[in-house]
Structures are given as C-alpha cells and as structure tokens.
C-alpha cells in the first residue's frame, strides 16, 4: 500500500527488545547465551510447583468457582478479549462475575484496589480499566490474589471469579484453567525465559482444561478470531463510519502486526507505524497531529486526556469457532459453573 515504505518504529532499542526478537528467530546467538539462566529459571519454577504438589505450600481456595485465563508465554496472546468474552457468556447465564488481575504497570495507592470504568490507567492499569469499562463487572488488582478475592467478596455478591492471567500463580486454587495461545507466534524458539518466551514448558498444555488459539487454528482446535466491531473516537467514543482516512497506526501491544492488518483490511492506508512497548504510558508527543491516528481499544483507554480530534480506536471482539463454543459450554457445565 502507498506510504508503507516510509513506516517508522518508535521502539527503544534496548537489551529487552533485542532479546525478545531473539525469541522468534531460529538459531539466534543471544538465546544460546541465555540458556544457563533458563536452566536456573526452570529449577526455581519446578521447585515451586513441587512445594505445592507436596502440600508444603497450600493454595487458597475461594468460596466460589475461579476461572484462570492465562498463557505459558510472555507478551500479548489475547487474554483480555477472551476474558471479555467469558465474562459476557457467564453474565448471559445469570452469573454475577468478578474479575481479578495483577494490574501490571498500575500504580494504585494501595492493594488490593478496586478498579472501575472511570479510573485512570496510571492508577488502575490499561487492561483492568478496559475490563471494567467493557464488562461492567467489579475488577480488583493486586499481587495477592487471595486478598483481591476477599475484597471482591466483601464488597459485591459474586458467583464466579475470572482471574486475568495467573496460570503460574499456584498459590491461587482454580476450578478451570484456560490457556491462550497466539496461533501466529506460537511458542517462538520453544525455550524457557530468558532464552525464550516461555514461562512454562509446552508440557503445561496437557494439564490445563482447555487450550484456546487466538487466530488461525486447525479444524479440531478451540479457537477465536479478533473481529472488528467498530471504529470510535478516542476523545468521546463516537462511532465513525467508513471510508476511513489514511493515517498513522500507533500501538503498545504484544503483536501489533495483527492490529495493523485489521486496519488495512478495513481500507485504512497506513502512512506510518509507531510501536511502543506493551503497557507504554503515552505522552502527547507520541500521537502525531499532522494526520489521523489509529490505535487499539487498550491503547485508547490510556490516551483519552491527550487525544486530538483525529484519534480513533478499533474495537475488536473475540469471535469463537464452533469447537470453542461447544467445548467451553461443556466444560462450564461439567465443572458446575453454569
């Protein structure tokens, strides 16, 4: 498309970014150098799992069912759209849903902290604020999941709790584990951190209740696609209709290429692409004023105070395939959640 040859990327070229690139390249020397640290990471995580399996450490069991939506790799895998989908599904079944999250990057005055749709993202975190806005469910952030659940239960009547992330947080007992896999990037070089992107080995997929692929998957795989559901003004959430003007794609997400493809498929001519690290806190200078700016909904919740009149966000929803719909319904019934 015209203009793409002039694209630019505003990523800090630090060690962390170089290491992440190594995870998704075959035979990168930097991944090899990191292998001794990955061995240490494996020993520590295996020892931690052993302590829980031997009951030396005990997991907290909530008084209501807990569903963990997590992954085995770092970076954006699509947990938030699945959490939104699951919360809506449970609400349609008449369940009162609460959501807990670590709140990565948030700076609350104390924890656990209750996040609502009016909370600013610096205090509540981008994903928790988005979850609160889209679902209307109470959302609590904090590193201590037990304390977060106890706060939820003390302030709201809750039938089921969704933990956004936390698959490796074994101190939290769970009734259902859903593991989200980016069908495009998969597991990179297949190595554990920091030599690769994995928090746990691929063996972990055999122990979860359901593996869910975000994107193109096999005919028998439970999967969903991120389906555009509208373009909106960042400043006031007013919907806009095509045709869309050309402009700059700005994103601070794990896999920006998927978002950018969605824009081009909608007819947006991208004159520039600006990438920032996941959970980046935007400043006014990050948003060019010479043209329209397109971003994700996750980015938009951080940009409302600094957005100009030509800033727009693309809303996407998880569209489940038939396999996912059937397996998820069966799982929720079998576990007594619905």
TrEMBL record:
One Gene Ontology term of the molecular function aspect: lipid-A 4'-kinase activity
Binding-site residues for ATP, renumbered to this chain: 73-80
Pathway involvement of the protein, from the record: Glycolipid biosynthesis; lipid IV(A) biosynthesis; lipid IV(A) from (3R)-3-hydroxytetradecanoyl-[acyl-carrier-protein] and UDP-N-acetyl-alpha-D-glucosamine: step 6/6
Superkingdom of the source species: Bacteria
Keyword field contains Cell division: no
Enzyme Commission code(s) on record: 2.7.1.130
Keywords assigned: ATP-binding, Kinase, Lipid A biosynthesis, Lipid biosynthesis, Lipid metabolism, Membrane, Nucleotide-binding, Transferase, Transmembrane, Transmembrane helix
Pfam families noted in UniProt: LpxK (PF02606)
Positions of transmembrane segments: 29-51
Reactions the enzyme catalyzes: a lipid A disaccharide + ATP = a lipid IVA + ADP + H(+)
NCBIfam families: lpxK
HAMAP family, sorted: LpxK (MF_00409)
UniProt family annotation: Belongs to the LpxK family.
Function text: Transfers the gamma-phosphate of ATP to the 4'-position of a tetraacyldisaccharide 1-phosphate intermediate (termed DS-1-P) to form tetraacyldisaccharide 1,4'-bis-phosphate (lipid IVA).
Protein name: Tetraacyldisaccharide 4'-kinase
Organism: Pseudoalteromonas qingdaonensis
Originating gene: lpxK
């Amino acid at each position: 498309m015209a203009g793409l040859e002039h694209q630019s990327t505003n990523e800090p070229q630090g060690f962390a970014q170089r290491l992440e690139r190594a995870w998704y390249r075959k035979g990168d020397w930097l991944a090899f150098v990191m292998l001794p640290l990955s061995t240490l990471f494996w020993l520590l995580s295996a020892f931690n799992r052993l302590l829980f399996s031997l009951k030396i450490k005990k997991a907290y069991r909530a008084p209501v069912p807990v569903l963990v939506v997590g992954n085995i790799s770092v970076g954006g895998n699509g947990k938030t759209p699945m959490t939104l989908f699951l919360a809506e599904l449970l609400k349609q079944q008449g369940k009162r849903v609460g959501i807990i999250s670590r709140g990565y990057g948030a700076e609350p005055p104390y924890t656990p902290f209750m996040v609502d749709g009016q909370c600013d993202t610096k205090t509540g975190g981008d994903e928790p604020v988005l979850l609160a806005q889209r679902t209307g469910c109470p959302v609590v952030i904090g590193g201590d999941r037990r304390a977060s659940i106890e706060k939820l239960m003390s302030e709201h009547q809750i039938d089921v709790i969704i933990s956004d992330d936390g698959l490796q947080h074994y101190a939290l007992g769970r009734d259902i584990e859903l593991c989200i896999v980016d069908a495009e990037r998969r597991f990179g070089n297949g190595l554990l951190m920091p030599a690769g992107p994995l928090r746990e080995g691929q063996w972990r997929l055999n122990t979860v209740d359901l593996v869910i692929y975000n994107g193109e998957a096999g005919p028998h795989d439970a999967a969903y696609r991120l389906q555009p559901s509208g373009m909106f003004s960042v400043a006031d959430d007013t919907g806009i209709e095509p045709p869309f003007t050309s402009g700059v794609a700005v994103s601070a997400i794990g896999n920006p290429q998927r978002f950018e493809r969605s824009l081009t498929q909608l007819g947006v001519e991208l004159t520039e692409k600006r990438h920032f690290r996941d959970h980046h806190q935007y400043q006014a200078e990050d948003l060019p004023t010479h043209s329209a700016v397109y971003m994700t909904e996750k980015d938009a919740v951080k940009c409302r105070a600094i957005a100009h009149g030509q800033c727009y966000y693309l809303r996407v929803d998880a569209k489940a395939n038939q396999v996912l719909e059937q397996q998820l319904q069966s799982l929720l019934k079998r576990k007594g959640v619905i």
